[in-house]
From TrEMBL:
Keywords: Carbohydrate metabolism, Fucose metabolism, Glycoprotein, Glycosyltransferase, Membrane, Signal-anchor, Transferase, Transmembrane, Transmembrane helix. It comes from Papaver somniferum. It holds the Pfam family O-FucT. CDD domains: O-FucT_plant. One of its GO terms (biological process) is fucose metabolic process. This is O-fucosyltransferase family protein. It is found in: Membrane. The keyword Transmembrane applies. One of its GO terms (molecular function) is glycosyltransferase activity. Belongs to the glycosyltransferase GT106 family.
Amino acid sequence: MEVRSDVVHHLRNDNNNNNNKIPSSSSSTSSLPRTRLQVWFIRVCSSILVWTLFIQLVAVGELWQPHLLKGLSNHFKAVRLEEVAPPPAPLLPQRVYKSNGYLKVSCNGGLNQMRAAICDMVTVARFLNLTLVVPELDKTSFWADPSNFDDIFDMKHFIDSLRDEVHIIKRLPKRLNRKVANQLLEMSPVSWSTEKYYLEQVLPLFSKYKVIHFNKTDARVANNGLPVDFQKLRCRVNYQALKFTPRINALGNKLVRLLKEKGTFVALHLRYEMDMLAFSGCTHGCTEAEAEELKRMRYAYPWWREKEIVSEERRSQGLCPLTPEEAALVLQALGFHRDTQIYIASGEIYGNERRLATLRAAFPRIVKKEMLLDPLDLQQFQNHSSQMAALDFMVSVASDTFIPTYDGNMAKLVEGHRRYLGFRKSILLDRRKLVELLDLYQNGTIPLGRFSSDVRLMHEKRLGQPSRRKAIVDKPKEEDYFYPNPHECVCERVNCDGLTGNLGNSSVG
């Protein structure tokens, strides 16, 4: 606001005239209220002018940086939090050893396949006395996620928390990068290998090649027959060193909090997604057009070897994820009530809401992260499937009950994580037997009561209770996988020998 110049000029003239006169007592008394009014008027005008200028400056600042004030607010909040936050834990003493060389690794697959591979590669580096370069994440697979390691995991914590075991660096030194540019050995380790293979066949290569690059890391370490220290280090990396970034942790914890505010909840890992159906060849419940679309997608990826697949044969072997309609029947048979809160932990369901209609009709309290969070919260995660999967991972681990409809990598790692945290209830569906019962019920051969009782009976001992892995000599692909049941890391607290139930709440529904 602008103060009129003629008003100010008039006030100044009045003051000058008054100063040149010798006031009488009567004139002084009469002018006193007038002088106070003038002073009051000037102060009001000045205040309005100052506040107007301040508001204009703030408006211009917002144009330059919309989040300026918010950032300042957050800064002061952070300062206050730092003042009361406990000091960071002291670093573990660094392990001193003579490094035999540098190991670079490129992980392949989705988030949880890469997570298991990172655990394996840290352990390999430890046993070969190597320096490990922070793993590179897959950016070229079906999901095409451009995320780097530190976009998903807390890199500093990863390096610091393992410093007493293995030296991990963010990148190769520049001098070494130039030196070995033409002498870098790239190789894929033999699948399901023990420490003997790495000691006898891989370690000698480092005497010639100072840097070796493992370009594939999935399932390159055996499940069984390894030293206990080897297995325990895999667990330590998985459950302690691999922490998600603060940004992912904050949003994941927000999801868990929103769910728990509404009561207990089931995390249903409904792996009925386009990539799963296309590559597995599972088209049960799909239209002819959808089955053809999935087949075209399978052929579009030359690296996928198996092209012609008979869906019903695959399904009868228990190798297909349950459809949403089948999942609804199974949940009801397991004893879950209509008002059960169910979180769908998955990407986009093939067929979208049309395929979820039956499941939603049976369980109206179905939610997904997109329903619980503000779109702005998820905007930063769009086109980053691994970061989205990290949110689902956190919710699944924290759920009251976890139910995977397919035993893929996420299902396996969540199951193992829940065992490690105290054998939290995970209902591990026997899909081969389930599809037999589903078909018998749906064609009217058995009644609903018989179907429900049989489903509950077959899962009484499949709740994630303590048990030992099944090892099959010379058939590593058929034996139990390490990560769903790392018994070397959990059976010290609970005796896993011969236990099949009776731990905590062993009821199914």
